[in-house]
RNA 2',3'-cyclic phosphodiesterase
Amino acid sequence: MRESIRAFVAFPLPEEAKDALWRFVEKQKGTYPQGKWVNRDHFHLTLAFFPALPSPCVEDIREILEHLGCTFPSYGVILEEIGVFPSWQRARVLWVGLDGKGKTVTIQVARTLFQKLREACIPWDEDKDFVPHVTLARFRSPLALHATAFTGWSPLPVVFREIVLFQSTLTPSGPVYHKLVQVPLKG
């Protein structure tokens, strides 16, 4: 194993959710060809990103994820709203966010993860305003978008059953994800 790896902790999505998201993405690609659209198999909800995770920390993260798996039961969310970062006038990322209750629980999971990472002195790309979301596309240049353009999205129920540490290897044809640690949520 190399000295450091590019990695992230995430909730993977079930196949039926990936299918529904992909159908939506396929409809949008023609309208927004300048977007770099997420591959169907790569849909997930990122909790923490590690641009350069020291390889020895993988075992520490395994312990943290096992703690989360014992602490939090599997739970349902609704992929509900289409949103963008940073703003509709200058969109760089198009995403789908969670309903209120699902968002609240996911933020609790993320805060517990962040606390454990701090205690273990594991550096991550800390986002002060964590917004639970599934990325659909990225735009190299800011784009003016309108929320009304995405009315074709229907809320989608999803159950988070596991939490995973993925390694992300960048290649010319896009990132390749490999599961390093996979822990079921209790229940």
Observations:
- Strands lie at 4-12, 35-37, 44-54, 75-85, 91-98, 133-143, 156-160, 162-171, 174-184.
- The chain has one domain: 4-184.
- The helical segments are 15-29, 57-71, 100-119.
- The longest strand covers residues 44-54.
